[in-house]
Amino acid sequence: MRFAVCVKHVVDESELKIDSEGKPQLEGALGRMGTFDKNAVEEALRLRSALGGEVVAITIGKAEARKSLKEALAMGADRGVHVLAEPGVLDPSKTSGLLAAAIAKTGPYDLVICSEGSSDTYTGLVPPMVAERLGLPYLGYARKLEVAAQGVKAELSLEESLTSIESPLPSVVSVVSEINEPRYPTLIQIMQASKKPIVELSLEQLAVTGSSPPTTILSMTAQSPKRKRVIIEGTPDEAAEKLLGALEKEGILSH
Amino acid sequence: MKMSVWSFSENATVAAEIASAAGSLANSMQGEAVVVEMGNLRGDVSGPGKKLLLKGPLQAGASPEASAEAIHRAAKKLEPAIILVGATRNGREVASRLAVKMMTGCLAEAFHLSVEDGNLVADRTAYAGKVVARVSCPLPCVSTVRSGSYSREEAVPGEVQEFEVGEIVVKTKTLKSSKKESGTVNLKSAKVIVSAGRGVKKKEDLAMLDDLAREMKGALGCSRPLSSDLGWLPEEHHIGLTGVTVKPDLYLAIGISGQLQHIAGMKDSKVVAAINTDKEAPIFQASDYGIVGDLYQLVPALRRALSARR
Q: Quick one: three-class SS letters along chain B?
């Protein structure tokens, strides 16, 4: 079976610096594979070891996005596909159009696996948009996946329910982060990853058509938590007493 | 023709919130708000504006794939300017499929929505809540709306328009659906949340935090490791970017270090207090009150102080 796994090269949110005007400094910020995308890669690898076949990691981005593909290859993906384009940072329509085109061009795949959302923007829109563009069923937020020749069965973790669902292949799935524990590549695997093939695709090669009007980012502002940051001192009993006193002053716990 | 703003969610509570978002948008543009209902009208969905009842082989629990197709068929005919969809897990599929079918743009997780010069403009958070982005998309367009951003309004009995959508073929098949074993957890509506993190040494110790939560008339939440990695609490207790987003009056973080992805789920709480042994823990930067100390001493001390007040 052939599995496509979509990974996004994202700015590491914990390393993201804010300048003196409260603007995030995205230029030159450290990038890596999205946190939850590792669960998608892990699931693809798990399915490959059970069913055989090939795992292809696909990403979109400028030259540095290759780093995220390398991470997927080090984890165990067989090959990489790099769409050389600037993904609309907050534009799932554009991103999904490019991904769908890359999947169609390098396919056919039996299953397209995505994470539940990217760790930078977390819209959760790209996987179902890819499914719609490819005319495929979508099984979103799976916490358990069973794949066989005749189809895929998933247990979806929705807000209030667990839903078992089945679908023929090919399908698009997204997985929640509790589905597995992503492996850490060894040093040897990281070195071997550089020998694995990566295909680069330009926008011209993909010839994406029918794209939607893009969303525009008007501004980005850092949110600074306006918190008092009072540290309460004293013995446990004193500190507990002071905390309750402070909370009562805030109008909390005063019944 | 009057511009219309549609709203839809498969979840009745969220549907009422999104209806009020659509109502205020419609008001601002002298348009009309329309609540989209699948198969049959739900009595508990309130909100301003009229109802558009999509008829066909559909039910209130229709799959997101079918719902998107049904809404698309109605939208082709009736041409709404904006379609708002509640940002639930299924809602995101509905919005995504709709935007692709209609070849429109799509905003995500939006709040503070407005219409400016023929564009839908909204705020959304990014980078685990570290950044707020103001985004814009030309009309017509689709947007998912972050739940908890609008309060539900009084039910207004409105006009009901029916629309026959016809046969819809769906490739997925739902085998069964069961309620999550969330017990009595309702973190969304809890005024006080006591939340447990990795500082809790063993599962049994959660009982002490659960007792504290009850004594504060609150609910017990947790950070991701406790539900996802350790499995000490069901996933419904997990507060954070990939879990539940909450905004209680008091959020008491106990033994939680305060990773950005956790903060993203609780940063809108009115007051945040934290207990952690590590004085450098990032949670203290996101707290109003912090106590650097051992939760195994502080939780009993808090319970004693609470009972002394009764």
A: CCCEEEEECCCHHHHHHHHHHHHHHHHHCCCEEEEEEECCCCCCCCECCEEEEEECCCCCCCCHHHHHHHHHHHHHHHCCCEEEEECCHHHHHHHHHHHHHHCCEEEEEEEEEEEECCEEEEEEEECCCCEEEEEEEECCEEEEECCCCCCCCCECCCCEEEEECCCCCCCCEEEEEEECCCCCCCCCCCCEEEEECCCCCCHHHHHHHHHHHHHCCCEEEECHHHHHHCCCCCHHHEECCCCECCCCCEEEEECCCCCHHHHCCCCCCCEEEEEECCCCCHHHHHCCEEEECCHHHHHHHHHHHHHHCC
